[in-house]
Amino acid sequence: MTYSNPNIETHKFVINQTFLIFCEPNEVVPAITPVGYAAETRRAKEKIIRSFVKANARYPWDQLFFEQGFST
Length: 72
Known about the structure:
Elements: E1 11-15, E2 19-23, H1 44-52, H2 61-64
Antiparallel strand pairs: 1-2
């Protein structure tokens, strides 16, 4: 995928060295990343919360990432 527009300055952000996000100047790209290490064992409270929110159920890769827009 190639993006170029001589009238607009764009910035490229590399995500996992696989995906690019093209941003306009002063545009904010929200991102969340885990910090630290996972505990060896989970507390009962965490097990209950993870079960309630179905944290172990993951969407397929093609539903998590989008190409050329968030409407696809």
